[in-house]
Design a protein that fits this description.
By secondary structure, the protein is mainly α. The chain has three helices and two strands. A hairpin with a 3-residue loop joins strand 1 and strand 2. Helix 1 runs antiparallel to helix 2. The chain starts with 13 loop residues before the first strand and ends with a helix.
Length: 117
């Protein structure tokens, strides 16, 4: 049976031999948007000028430009998301650590506690 006992590891797809599209964040979306950008730019240039070679050049340039643009935009957002996650994780750890102590920022201090500190 196909579903029983399959212990084969899933193969990853490597683009150009080095870009692991399955495991690298943002790689899949960048390649897909890049291919769409190359199609639009190449076809648009061909319909406007009817020059095949130059349209292919525009398509390759469109692929590179769109792919890199999507890649940097996605990686920037991914980095921001990871920074926010790390800050939230540290904040939750500090809340658990300081909860109920005199260092708890949510705990209201009375006049006697302020003068003792």
């Amino acid at each position: 049976m196909a579903g029983e006992g399959d212990s084969e590891p899933e193969k990853s797809f490597k683009l150009l031999g080095f870009l692991d599209v399955k495991n690298v964040p943002c790689a899949r979306e960048s390649v897909l948007y890049g291919s769409l950008g190359s199609l639009v730019l190449g076809l648009g240039h061909f319909l406007a000028t009817s020059r095949v070679r130059r349209s292919c050049d525009f398509a390759v340039g469109g692929f590179i430009f769109t792919m890199l643009g999507c890649w940097f935009y996605c990686r920037y957002n991914f980095a921001q998301h990871r920074i926010r996650q790390r800050m939230l994780r540290e904040g939750m750890k500090n809340k658990i650590l300081f909860e109920g102590s005199s260092l708890d920022p949510e705990r209201k201090q009375t006049g006697n506690e302020r003068s003792n500190s």
